Amino acid sequence: MMETRSEGSTVDDHYTLITGASSGIGREIAKGLSGQRRLILNGRDEQRLDETRQACSSPERHLVWPQALDRVADTQRSFTELLARHQVRVSNYVHCAGTLKILPLRSIEIDHALEVLNTNFTSAFALMNVLVKKKVNDQKLKSVVFISSIASQFGAKGFSIYAASKGALDALMKSLAVELAPDVRVNSVLPGAIKTEMTKSIFAKPEVEERFRRDYPLGVGEPEDIVHIVEFLLSERARWITGQQLILDGGRTVNITA
Amino acid sequence: MNLEGRRYLVTGAASGIGRACAVLLSRLGGSVACMDKDAGGLAETAALLEGDRHHAGAFNLREIAEISAHLQTIANSFGKLHGFVHAAGIPGTMPLKVLTPEAWRETFLVNTESALALTKAFQNRNVYAGESGSVVFITSVMGIVGDKSNVAYAMSKGALISVTRSLALELASKKIRVNSVAPAFVRTPMYAKAEQVWTAEQKAMVESLHPLGIGEPEDIANAVAFLLADTARWITGSTLVVDGGYTAR
Q1: B130-168, pLDDT tens digit by residue?
Q2: DSSP H or E segment with residue B83
Q3: Deepest in the core among A29, A122, B56, B129, taking most CB within 10 A?
Q4: Do the chains contact at A218 and B236, CB–CB below 8 Å?
């Protein structure tokens, strides 16, 4: 039968890379995983990234990698250098980097659209490309989770380019799951609205609160909800799960009456 | 994934996925009421459980009108339930030209209708513990993608995935979450039986459909436990596909 060892084991030599760790869901996942894992924390703002590190268990165990992800070539170069400089390997990767501005189609500048695509999607492709290079990561990669969104599956006004970036991320996930099996598992988590430091004030507005109460049969999510599912997917308990989009939304997407 | 103080019913507990679920739930601290029509297999499962908080009783889910009274009896002696896992299921592998209404109704009865009857009985306040409610149906990737000569099974599992979505909405106000786990081919007695009639070529073909190979019952049990426990507190109406990459291709 299964062993429970995998759930609580400490990965010493191998790091877990978390992009988008300077705020929101990325920061919460970093805090949640920091007790059991050594992390590489990525974000564009060095100061906020260090705040995340300080909020983690054993801050000294983790590395910070300040780098904006919208320029793909820079991202690859800087990440390859980071692994070589610290002599570390990455066994798990959680892609949380994501930028969202709710804008109607007519107001989206093409440069903005490309920035969203690069940060949310192309950077995941670029980092996976580096992580499977034998010389760089020594075939250590085991399990990958992309933080997508229910917007990859359902329409919403003003979400066009964001939704497209998440849909692309999910398509990349499926192809990589098939291409990299059985060595690497790749899955997506599609969250609905989760209460974080970043979204707390928006969710507190009466009109938003009222809409969420109507739309979400189980209410809005807590950071620990996403931490649990990411932990599960990275662990050996999910050793036969790959190529899947796991919906985490308190029933939002089955609720057509919303 | 801590299930201490929680009580769960597991159907189809005499073998395969049901047995693996019962064993894992007991190891995670839960109390398990095991149900199956096969009393011998049920006794074997009971011997594998950790602790002595458990219950096992033979029951045939085809007795659909008796399900409600039977769950009440279990709740009275074992304690009110926090949830259940519906792992009981029968295959329906037959090409359409030989498939009979009797055969497809039988598959639908055991796989789907009994799940609905079990949920109806469970949500009653004399059976349900009233908090942390969680129901998990074992469905199948065949309920999501097509499969030749398997229409009865695929239909029964596809319908169960629909049951999952609607009941998730209906029971949210009672704090009962409803989800399903959809496996591809898993090494169970049902699989072993199917394997016997396959040629070596067919067997290799089936294996090749799974980028991570054929699954083990424990792989499914792990996903079920994740959904039952508070780790999935915010997940309802979902179908968690655990298939070694079968549907990603």
Answers
A1: 999 999 999 999 999 998 889 999 999 999 999 999 999
A2: strand B83-86
A3: A29
A4: yes
> Does A247 contact B24 at a Cβ distance shorter than 8 Å?
no
Shortest Cα distance, chain B CAs vs residue A135, angstroms: 25
Considering only alpha carbons, which residue of chain B is nearest residue A179? B211
ipTM: 0.93
Of the candidates B24, B168, B245, the beta carbon closest to that of A242 is on B245
* A93 counts as catalytic: no
Pair of tokens at residue A251: 């029933």
pLDDT < 50 regions, chain A: 1-12
Of B104, B135, B107, the C-alpha closest to B121 is B135
Q: Do the Cβ atoms of B245 and A178 come within 8 Å? A: yes
Q: Do B245 and A243 touch (CB under 8 A)?
A: yes
Contacts of B166 in chain A (CB under 8 A): 254
Secondary structure in 3-state letters for chain A: CCCCHHHHCCEEEEEEEEECCCCHHHHHHHHHHCCCEEEEEEECCHHHHHHHHHHCCCHHHCEEEECCCCCHHHHHHHHHHHHHHHCCEEEEEEECCCCCCCCCHHHCCHHHHHHHHHHHHHHHHHHHHHHCCHHHHCCCCCEEEEECCHHHCCCCCCCHHHHHHHHHHHHHHHHHHHHHCCCCEEEEEEECCECCCCCHHHHCCHHHHHHHHHHCCCCCECHHHHHHHHHHHHCHHHCCCCCCEEEECCCHHHCCCC
Domain range annotation of chain B: 7-240
Q: Do A218 and B216 touch (CB under 8 A)?
A: no
Residues in chain B, how many?
249
Q: What is the DSSP string of B171-187?
A: HGGGTEEEEEEEE-SB-
Other C-beta atoms closer than 10 Å to the C-beta of B104 total: 18
Q: Identity (one letter) of the amino acid at B53?
A: R
CATH 3.40.50.720 fits B7-240, yes or no: yes
Contact B182, B140 (CB under 8 A): yes
Which residue among the candidates B8, B153, B191, B246 is catalytic per the annotation? B153
DSSP state of B149: T
Our CA dihedral for A8, A9, A14, A20, rounded to 10 degrees, sits at 0
What number of C-beta contacts closer than 8 Å exist between A and B?
116
pLDDT at A2: 37
Return the pLDDT at A7: 41
Q: What is the mean pLDDT of residues B31-36?
A: 98
Residues of A with CB under 8 A from a CB of B: 1-2, 4, 7, 174, 177-178, 181-182, 185, 217-218, 221-222, 225, 228-229, 232, 237-244, 246-251, 253-255, 257
Q: Select from B1, B172, B223 the Cβ nearest to the Cβ of A251.
A: B172
